[in-house]
Each structure stands twice: as structure tokens, then as C-alpha cells.
Specification:
Helix content: 25-40%
Protein name: Hydrolase
Strand order of the largest sheet: 3-2-1-4-5
Distance between the termini: 25 Å
CATH class: Alpha Beta
Shape: globular
CATH topology: Rossmann fold
Low-confidence stretches: 1-19, 21-48
Structural class: alpha/beta
Radius of gyration: 16 Å
InterPro entries: Acid_phosphat_B-like, HAD-like_sf, HAD_sf
Mean pLDDT: 83
Number of domains: 1
Keywords: Hydrolase, Signal
Largest sheet: 5 strands, parallel
Number of helices: 6
Strand content: 15-25%
Order of helices and strands: HHEHEHEHEHE
CATH architecture: 3-Layer(aba) Sandwich
GO molecular function, one term: hydrolase activity
Length: 212
């Protein structure tokens, strides 16, 4: 997707910052677990709202498994293969429940893996349940934090009435239809990872739905 002019970004940020601030509040929605390729994190903080240090440690545990896989998979790319990684945004690439400001800080363990991938020619795509009204400030936030955004998928009006998991799966299908091989899908909720269309999934902690 193309990036709009700087002035258009600033205008969109001004009208959408309240929405982003609301999204930065602690989430209350619950999701069910998923049998992902990678075990997410320890259950040490599942009984109460997780603290930041525990969350970062648990995210790092998952990314310590993701990085060796990605290094090997990137090195084994077939000639002409267009590799891609799909990321969720809230509490995956950005510190949504911990970053009470705009731009929200990057989730550093994930950013480090993303930077390795993008530095080695892998395209980064972001599939989020965020509404389209905050597309531009979300794109700016990601790029500000150091992510190279090859594509950002947000929910349009009619998408808001669809099952989130089905919506996210459809976006991965669209990425594949543009000729990309999705070598990894990284998110913190079941809806981010179910539905296939990725060679490997990595689940970050959501502590039984305590994080959005």
C-alpha cells in the first residue's frame, strides 16, 4: 500500500489520536487458546494483570525461538522467492497495553526480529483488527518505531461485522495472491494465527486474554 503525503499523515493523526489513546488502555476482551507451533510464555502472570518486565521476558522467550528459524528459512530461500512475515499490531509489534503515549513504543523483542528480517530482504505485512479510520497514524507509528511497512491491513466498515479470525486469514490469502511466501505469522491472540496460510506461527503471550 502506498504512503500518503506528510501533511495528510499529520492531519489524520490529529483527528485519530483519541482513538489510539483508547486502544492503549488495558484490554478486557478474552480469547481462547491456540495450539501454535511455538509455546507462548510462562503462566506465571496469568492470575493477575501481567507486569511489564514479565511480559517482555516472555516475549523474548518466543522471539528467541523465532529468530533461529527465520535465519535458517531466509538463508534457504529459493531463487526468486518473495518472502514475507505477517505481524499483528496490538501487544505484538507495539506496546499497546503498556505504551500510554503516541507514538506507542515498539515491542523490542519483536522489533529486533523484524529488523533482522527486513535487513535480509523479507517484506513485513501488518494485519490488525484496528479500524480503517486510524490507518495513517498506525502506519506512521510503525514506521516511526523502525518497521518497514510493505503492507498494512485494517478493517473497513463491512469488516467490522466479520469474524476477526476469518478476516485476518483472508488478508494473508491476499498477501499470498500477490506472490509472497509467508514464512512466519506472529501474533498474541488465537485470531491472529488460526486459519493457516503461513509456514510457521509464533504466539506471544496474552495471558488468557488479559492483553488485547
Amino acid at each position: 500500500m502506498t504512503t500518503g503525503p506528510w501533511a495528510r499523515r499529520i492531519s489524520a493523526t490529529a483527528v485519530s489520536v483519541a482513538a489510539l489513546a483508547a486502544m492503549a488502555a488495558p484490554a478486557q476482551a478474552a480469547t481462547t487458546g491456540i495450539a501454535a507451533d511455538t509455546s507462548a510464555a510462562t503462566a506465571s502472570a496469568s492470575a493477575a494483570k501481567v507486569d511489564y518486565a514479565t511480559w517482555q521476558k516472555d516475549c523474548q522467550t518466543v522471539m528467541d525461538q523465532a529468530l533461529p528459524y527465520l535465519k535458517a528459512r531466509i538463508a534457504a530461500a529459493e531463487p526468486g522467492e518473495k518472502q514475507a512475515i505477517v505481524f499483528d499490531i496490538d501487544n505484538t509489534t507495539l506496546e499497546t497495553d503498556f505504551g500510554f503515549s503516541y507514538p506507542q513504543p515498539a515491542n523490542k523483542p519483536v522489533l529486533n526480529v523484524a529488523k533482522y528480517a527486513q535487513d535480509h530482504g523479507v517484506r513485513l505485512f501488518f494485519v490488525t483488527a484496528r479500524p480503517g479510520i486510524i490507518y495513517l497514524p498506525t502506519e506512521y507509528n510503525l514506521e516511526h518505531d523502525g518497521y518497514n511497512v510493505s503492507g498494512l491491513y485494517v478493517r473497513g466498515l463491512f469488516d467490522l461485522f466479520k469474524d476477526v479470525a476469518a478476516y485476518k486469514t483472508a488478508q494473508r490469502v491476499d498477501i499470498e495472491n500477490h506472490g509472497y511466501k509467508i514464512i512466519a505469522n506472529i501474533g498474541n491472540n488465537a485470531t491472529d494465527l488460526s486459519g493457516g496460510h503461513a509456514e510457521k506461527t509464533f504466539k506471544l503471550p496474552d495471558y488468557n486474554g488479559q492483553l488485547s
